[in-house]
Amino acid sequence: MSRDHVHPAERSAAPAGAPLSSAETPFLELLARGASADAYEQPVLLARAEGCSTERIVALEQARLLALRVRSELEGRRRREAELSALFETAHDLAGLRDLDAVLQAIVQRARSLLGTDVAYLSLNDPARGDTYMRVTEGSVAARFQQLRLGMGEGLGGLVAQTARPYVTDDYFKDDRFQHTLTIDSGVRDEGLVAILGVPLMLGHHVIGVLFAADRRARVFEREQIALLGSFAALAAAAIDTANLLTETRSALADLERANEIIQDRSGVIERASDVHDRLAELVLRGGGVHDVAAAVSEVLDGTVEFAEATAAPADALEISRVEGHAVRHDDDWIAAVAAGGELLGALVLRGHPGLDPVDQRTLERAAMVTSLLLLARRSAAEAEQRVRGELLDDLLDARDRDPRLLRERAARLDADLDATHVVLAARLDATSADADQEAAARRRLWSAASHLAATRHGLAAARDGGTVLLLPLAAGDTATTLARSTARHLGTAVHEAVTVGASAPVEALAAHPDAVAAAYEEGRRCLDALRLLGRSGDGAAAEDFGFVGLLLAGDRDIAGFVDRTIGQVVAYDERRGTDLLRTVDAYFASGMSPARTKDELHVHVNTVAQRLERVGRLLGDDWQSPARALEIQLALRLHRLSAPAQR
Predict the structure, then answer these.
(1) For the segment 394-450, what is each residue's pLDDT rounded down to a tens digit?
(2) Fewer CB in 10 Å around end: N or C, the chain?
(3) Backbone region of residue 339 per phi and psi (left: phi > 0; alpha: psi in -120 to 50; beta: other values)
(4) E strand residue ranges, 432-485
């Protein structure tokens, strides 16, 4: 009997080392190249087409079935090998956990790949909100599905969470074992899902979430696939637990680090407080100033601390700080009032330092207290110096028989030089108050401001005749007029009121000729009176600005009435018509009453000059050019010009 006609049972019982039958050979080749299941039909179909015997065809059928079983076994082993490899890789990822999201994403990706599903996703419970949210998705295309939040017990996931068991549905929308909601169904419909498998994520006996695998077509999930997804869910739960433990550990370490930083910071703050205490004590002992205190505190607090006048600091914050006695935050700055006995002297301002330690805040407050003490001490010293300066100037004004040597020595101790060229200035407030106390307070402010100016300019100042008198050195290139005007501006700014200042002509050798001071003061007073009579209150001028007119202005004169009576009609005509008659008359007298020279001065035609002078004659009378009238008119023109505001 030939080999082809051997009974299948006999062939199956052949020894293991026996040669292979010809019926098995084509199927072994198919197994070797990993052909698809359909390809195993080809040898049988070919034998039938060639008209092989029935025994041959039966042998090929049996060989085909055996080969398919071998193929299925091999595929199962490869699948299990892939699953074990994926589980091993996931466990390896978990062992080196650095980023929880990355590990969960890898778990979902591998689950989707091994189960061959369209989508895989993982949801976690949110105890704070009492619902479940989508944490990781793979293969999802619908935004609404990816952002789903589910109430506890809703949907397939709710059933898994309630029972702590896997659940699978072949057709989600036809399954009534779980609670359908519009939100969940809309999301699942957007994604197009049909078959869904869900397994619980367990930590101990508690469900913390659900791992899902889903297809967009009807499908039956096998037991091995459910078990595999359960293994991935266990790894995901372990990853989450590990991440939570790492988070707690890191949080505990961070708390310890913060506690250590606080301890170190407190130690540093105490050291800084001790340092600033020592520095401030040293500053007071060596006679430091306000800005020295600010610089020392700036260095200690590692910020910019400045002393500000009370008017320059934020009013609300400054008042709160003064009342409460503590530094007050204002935007990104801190304000500490510098006050003494209820009087506000200024503020220490810490710039751009919104976060301030309480100890550092106390340091700023202590610095403000030291600053107030320094200011009071400086004020006392300044007042004493002011009195000494005032006494020396009083002696120069009143005691003309003083020893020049003693006068020079007293002036030198005040950093003044009586041998230098000086100007005597008479200053007075223009505003008067019906309240005697307010009037006295205003005069004290003027005297204080004048004394401060005199000290900084190496001069002298004293209160006299309801105002203040100053003796200031004349700088090179300066004039008595410019000095009078700058003094009026300075004093007016300091006292916030208009101050009028009259100055004498420059005087020299005051120690040798002390009587020159009294004479110069009288001259300055006459200039002061002239300014006030001319309506130039708040201005400054010197004797040289008035010439002989200054003599006429001494005493109580009706200057405005004289000017109005003399040239008032011309002034009114110019103001009403916008003409230039007054300037023409002034130029006419200045040009020696020559029309030709007048037209050159005014840059107009001589006929224009003649017409203007004719108009003046009609306004003032035909005799306006007579010697007597001409003198009065020229004097009125001068007074009118002097009474106009000075060009500064």
Answers:
(1) 777 776 556 777 777 777 787 788 788 889 999 998 776 667 777 788 888 888 888
(2) N
(3) beta
(4) 460-464, 467-473
Question: What's the average model confidence in pLDDT over 227-254?
Answer: 81
Instruction: Give dist(CA 142, CA 121) in Å, integer.
Output: 13
Give the residue among 303, 300, 371 at the shortest CA–CA distance from 337.
371
Phi, psi of 403, rounded to the nearest 5 degrees: -70, 120
Both structure tokens of 233: 């869910």
Q: Rounded CA gap, 583 and 587, in Å?
A: 6
Give Rg (Cα) of the chain. Answer: 54
Burial 568-583 (b: 16+ CB within 10 A, else e): bbbbebbeeeeeebbe
Mean pLDDT value across residues 217-239 = 85
Mean pLDDT of the 160-178 span: 90
CA distance 536 to 122: 90
Q: What is the pLDDT of residues 19-41, one digit of tens each?
A: 456 778 887 777 777 778 788 88
Q: Which residues 6+ apart lie within 8 Å of 545 measured at CB?
A: 481, 527, 642
Q: How far apart are the first and last CA of the chain?
A: 143
| 435, 438, 442, 448 alpha-carbon torsion, rounded to 10° | 140
Q: SS3 helix, strand, coil % of the chain, rounded to 5?
A: 60, 15, 25
Distance in angstroms (rounded) separating the CA atoms of residues 369 and 362: 11
3-state secondary structure (DSSP) of residue 514: coil
**How many residues are present in the chain?**
648
Helix (H) or strand (E) holding 303, with range, is: none
Strand boundaries in 157-221, DSSP class E = 167-169, 195-203, 206-215
546 pLDDT above the threshold of 50: yes
Task: Write phi, then psi, for 308 (nearest 5 degrees).
Answer: -120, 140
Nearest to 195 by CA among 221, 171, 166: 171
pTM over 0.85: no
Crossing angle of helices 358-398 and 515-533, rounded to 10°: 110
Distance CA 648, CA 637 (A): 21
Q: Which of 2-16, 133-147, 252-266, 451-465 has the weakest average pLDDT?
A: 2-16
Q: Looking at residue 8, what is its pLDDT?
A: 41
453 touches 461 (CB < 8 A): yes
Q: Which residues of 245-255 are buried (b: 16+ CB within 10 A; e: fewer)?
A: eeeeeeeeeee
Return the closest-CA partner of residue 215 out of 123, 133, 111: 111
CB 461 within 8 A of CB 454: yes
* Phi, psi at 207, each rounded to 5°: -85, 120
Q: Compute the distance between CA of residue 223 and CA of residue 392 in angstroms, rounded to an integer.
A: 115
Distance CA 327, CA 350 (A): 10
